[in-house]
Amino acid sequence: MKVIKDNYHKSNDESNITCDYCGSELKFEESDVYYGEYGLGKIECPLCGRANNVDGYEIKLTQDNVNYPEHYYHFYETEDSDLQIDERINQEVKECIDYLLTHDDEYFYYVEGKYFVLVYRPDDVGFNVVVSKDFYTTFVEK
Ligand SMILES: [Zn+2]
Q1: How many Å apart are CA 142 and CA 63, to the nearest integer?
Q2: What separation in Å is there between the alpha carbon of 78 and the centre of ligand 1?
Q3: Over the stretch 58-116, which tens digit does the pLDDT of each residue have?
Q4: How far is the CA of 102 from the centre of ligand 1 (A)?
C-alpha cells in the first residue's frame, strides 16, 4: 500500500504549503526560502515555477541590505492596452503639473500600479517629468 496523502500524522510544521498557483502541496526547508519584494520570504514552486509567499519569513530592508532587483516589487503586468495607459499617463502628467502650479511642493507623483509619473521642479523655469510603464519599488526602513 502506498499513502498518497497522510492526514493522520498531521504536523503543525509550517514547512508545508500549498502553491497559490497550481495547488500542489509542497514541503520546504529553510534553505529553500529566499527574500523577495519588500523582504518577504518566498519559495519557488518546483512544478509551476511561480513564487509563493511564506508566512513567518521576512527580513527588514535597510539601506545596507536592500538589493535591486530582488527586494523590489516589479510592476509590469497589465491587461490594459498601451493606448489606454498612454491616455491615463498624459492625464496624470497634466494633473501633477496643475498641482505644482498651485502648490509650493518640490515634486508630485502618481502611481497606478502599472505606471509611474513623477514631476519635479529643478528651477523656476519649468518641470522635469519622469514616466515609467515598467518600474520597481520597495520599502526601506530608517
Ligand atoms: Zn505551483
Answers
A1: 8
A2: 22
A3: 999 999 999 999 999 988 766 778 788 899 999 999 999 999 999 999 999 998 878 89
A4: 50
